[in-house]
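step 4 of 6: structure.
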Amino acid sequence: MPDLFEPLAVGSITLPNRVLFAPCTRHRANLDETATPIMIEYYGQRASAGLIISEGINPSTLGRGYYHVPALNNSEQEGSWRPITSAVSARGGAIFAQLMHAGRLSFPELLDGRAPIGASGVRPDPDFRGYTVSCPRPKEPYPTPKALDEKDVRLEITRFADAAARAVAAGFAGVEIHAGNGYMPIQFLSSNTNCRSDRYGGSIAKRSRFLLEIIDEVAERIGRDKVGVKLSPGFQFSDVRDDDPVGLYTYVTKCINDRRIAYLHVSDLHPYYGYDVHVEWYPLLRNIFEGVFIVNGGIGFEQAQQILSDGAADAVAFGSAFIANPDLPARFRAGAPLNVPRPELFYTQEAEGYTDYPRMDELPSSHTAADYRADFADLQPGT
Ligand SMILES: Cc1cc2nc3c(=O)[nH]c(=O)nc-3n(C[C@H](O)[C@H](O)[C@H](O)COP(=O)(O)O)c2cc1C
């Protein structure tokens, strides 16, 4: 069985290793949702990942969920990504763009005064709050979203395809459709947020249609070998729940498998949040999905090697460890200590806590990883 340092064919590209950078929102984009020069440095520093999956990128003018998050819905935004994809490929790396549509997890302030949209007019639990502006402003309860009619559902699907085409034009090797963590596609998938009675709601098959039509339309536009999907089955943190998560995710995974896309990325954040329902998702879905299977969520080096040697996945994506260690594959290979992430700087707009994590060869010889240990609360992944 392979280990983390063996190449892996994904779609039409071959990754040099299986240590992937999980998508991580970092709030370093401009307010017009263009990417910034500091992002060139950040992604370039992490080009030794087998594959970088970018931070969530908004595919629609109605998909914005935070300030300082980038988008791919006009030519200026598209152009702003070109130096980033070039920096990554100049260093021998590859990067997919993660398309992340916030749906109901947004505010009129972020949408030019328009109401956030959702599968149905179901307001997120007021205890689950979001930032109307960047941290450190206090979080606020989300408003009730506007339910999309069928015509507008189709429009948002097409926006994913348009953004995918822009991503490829900007030099991304492909796109990952974010169908987890409480955002738009999982709002259609989940029984508590989708109360529709048309072709996009009701049965599991109908609730899955939104995601499957996005996959089909994106694949039609850029090629199925350039399409990945992220699922976070069992995820409840953003007030998304399903009456029958096993039935839902086995069905969705079968349908995704039929589409022969580049990969399926399954993120189980149970280690962080603990859910009411816990299922061994990796083996369950691995048995259904025959293509490249990526897992993520609280996984360390040794566990990752074990997962690969058991054949339980083809690659592992690392979030916070890759944020803090731009040379993560080299550190794993050397058995070197890891820098510790500084979560209080995850969502600021500065270079500090973004591009200043040292590589192994930049550490003064007297330094140990503990020297970089900052005071931080228990790690909480973002979304
Ligand atoms: C700062 C931060 C931002 C994140 N942003 C995203 C995101 O944009 N899209 C996404 O799918 N997941 C996002 N996540 C979740 C990660 O992709 C990953 O699932 C999570 O960090 C667990 O993996 P880890 O234990 O290796 O960090 C984010 C996590 C962090 C820490």
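step 5 of 6: annotate
 - The longest strand covers residues 52-57.
 - The domain at 8-372 is CATH 3.20.20.70 (TIM Barrel).
step 6 of 6: archive
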